[in-house]
Amino acid sequence: MLESFAEFFADNIWLAVILISLIPTLEGRIALPFALSVSLLENNTLPPYLALICAFVGSVLPALPVVLATRKIKNRFFTGFVQERYMNKVNKLSTQKSTFKKLALLCGFVAIPLPMTGVWSGSVVAGCTNLKIWQSLVAIAIGSLISCSIILGVCLLFAGSELVILYISVGLLALFAIYELVVRLIKKKSKRDSI
Question: How would residue 22 be classed by pLDDT, with cut points 50, 70 and 90?
Answer without folding.
Answer: very high
